[in-house]
Design goal:
By secondary structure, this protein is α/β, with parallel strands linked by helices. 47% of the residues lie in helices and 18% in strands. The longest helix is centred in the middle third of the chain and has 22 residues. This is Scarecrow-like protein 14.
Length: 341
């Protein structure tokens, strides 16, 4: 609670001083090595099931499609690839497919880095994945896109006829501006692009948060509920003085909370919506929801029961796989297809 209070007090101080945007930009441009982030990521995987289950949900859905298909090319377009940590596991699985692996094409999309080399991180992710694919003899091709997502055209994605096409976006749609900022908003523009791509499946993960309200008091209160749940989970599952826990608290959740509290308008990039709000948005954007795979749900529930603290929640509602802590739902996963597919 002290750590959470410290971060929220920092956010309030920056808001009162009118320096939220400058502080947030300074934080996100601070160099943190991929190795340090990987260590923190590994700790997060061990401490809680949220990311591991999300990766399992996404990889298993993709693998099921690849196994059913007669096509020898699998194309994954990932919005928000970051370091691409989830894909080595899939590459390994593809390598052991009967009859040999398909060609794997990954289009990694993310926001540009500040400075002279906007695509540096995405390209570095591509090189790491290419090396991994080489180790497992999986034919591989990587296409890096580092620009504002609402400026991407369908031809930039280099979609080929006859390939199995999977679009993956885990928890990053929340970083796109919504209608409260601009009517023709980037969030809907990107969903429209995905619909035009006509993917075989669109795998979507959302942060189930109500802290996007335009009214500050409401937003602050909801953010406090959300982040106190995450900090309580870390306090229960990870010793206090492990450096990786501090990195997660300060440089992942802390930066997000700073943005929610201290920034306004187009500078506020943390804009989650609840999974029920997202469901309505997806239907309006021309998508139909696919049934939740019972096998995936059963395995997810068993894995959490066997390996994690009893207070973790795995549930389902309206074809969403829900993940939470002590009764509060934090993340939701679902699969979609364009209606006119």
């Amino acid at each position: 609670m002290q750590r959470l209070a410290y971060i929220f007090a920092d956010g309030l101080e920056a808001r009162l001083a009118g320096s939220g945007t400058q502080i947030y930009k300074a934080l996100i441009t601070k160099p943190t090595s991929a190795a340090d982030v990987l260590k923190a990521y590994q700790l997060f995987l061990a401490a809680c099931p949220f990311r591991k289950l999300s990766n399992f949900f996404s990889n298993k859905t993709t693998m099921n499609l690849a196994q059913r298909s007669t096509t020898k090319t699998l194309h994954i377009v990932e919005f928000g690839i970051l370091y691409g940590f989830q894909w080595p596991c899939l590459i390994q699985r593809l390598s052991s497919m009967p009859g040999g692996p398909p060609k794997l094409r990954i289009t990694g999309v993310d926001f540009p880095n500040p400075g002279f080399r906007p695509a540096e991180r995405v390209e570095e992710t591509g090189r790491r994945l290419a090396n991994y694919a080489r180790t497992f003899n999986v034919p591989f091709e990587f296409n890096a896109i580092a620009q504002k997502w609402d400026t991407i055209r369908i031809e930039d994605l280099k979609i080929e006829k006859g390939e199995v096409l999977v679009v993956n976006c885990l928890f990053r749609l929340r970083n796109l501006l919504d209608e409260t900022v601009v009517v023709d908003c980037p969030r809907n523009i990107v969903l429209n692009l995905v619909r035009k791509m006509r993917p075989d499946v669109f795998i979507l993960g959302v942060v189930n948060g109500a802290y996007s309200a335009p009214f500050f008091i409401t937003r602050f209160r909801e953010a406090l509920f959300h982040y106190s749940t995450l900090f309580d989970m870390l306090e229960t599952t990870v010793p206090r003085d492990i450096p990786e826990r501090k990195l997660i608290e300060r440089e992942i959740f802390g930066w997000e909370a700073m943005n929610v509290i201290a920034c306004e308008g187009a500078e506020r990039l943390e804009r989650p919506e609840t999974y029920k709000q997202c469901q309505v948005r997806m239907q309006r954007a021309g998508f139909t929801q696919l049934p939740l795979n019972r096998g995936i749900f059963t395995i997810a529930k068993e894995k959490v029961k066997e390996n994690y603290d009893k207070d973790f929640v795995i549930d389902e509602d309206g074809q969403w796989l829900l993940q939470g802590w002590k009764g509060r739902i934090l993340y939701a996963l679902s699969t979609w297809k364009p209606i006119d597919y």
